[in-house]
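Lecture 7 notes: from sequence to structure.

We start with a single chain of 86 residues. Read the sequence below before looking at the structure.
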Amino acid sequence: MPYYSFDLVVGEELKNQGGLILENLEVASDRADQLAAELCIVRPELKGSGCAVRVTSAENTEVYRTSLDPIPSWMRAPPNGDNGTR
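Now the structure, written as tokens:
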């Protein structure tokens, strides 16, 4: 199973949030999304500042990134994949 590292990205600064051996990238990206949500709760000052959680592989290649800023509902895709056009 692959090893993934998680960093809090604040501007150009990377703050290590630890690493985990996980089943695959899908599980790692879910964990990054959870970490971003948790950071928004414990560090609310980070919201609205362009911060993100990034995931890197064992080879130190970025494989996923999620923003701490919430995505406005009008920008989210509908759950059924309908893009609103008919």
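Strands lie at 3-10, 13-21, 52-56, 62-67. Keep this in mind for problem set 3.
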